[in-house]
Write a structure and sequence with these properties.
With 150 residues, this protein is an alpha+beta fold. The chain has one domain. It is built from three helices and five strands; from the N terminus they run αββαβββα. The protein has a five-stranded antiparallel sheet, with helices on one face. α1 packs across α3. The radius of gyration is 19 Å and the shape is elongated.
Amino acid sequence: MSARSGARGRSGRTWRLAPQSGGQKIPATVQERVRQRVLACAEDKFAGKYSRLDIRFRGAFCYIDAYQEPELPPGFPWPGCTETPDEYLDRMRDTPLHLCRLTYLGSEDTWAVAMYTYSGERYEPCVFYDGSMTGPPEDAFLLIAQLYLQ
């Protein structure tokens, strides 16, 4: 598959956009601008819903995780629990809430998004609010953060 939509190959078939496969290595300059854009969006829309965001890049992917300030569950410590309340809170503070994986498709505003599903413990492709398969990184973050950070 090609990342180009509508172009005709030698066989006469039309190539379709396959945003969840492929992608391009993310240049360092794009990485920094995307990091700043996502952090600004998160601060504007979700201030107080997370303690920090971890935005990391690997190859064609951008992974976004959130960390939240935990609370002790009711009845903690449970019978047989060897963790102290402070140990539990420290462990939970360091446990990321996986949000999404973005795939870079060659433009700062052209990314595919996959949401981390805890039921399947993997990233599943998503569509943006407008029904498209690609969009800017802030829109991808907003789509998933509204589910996980509310």
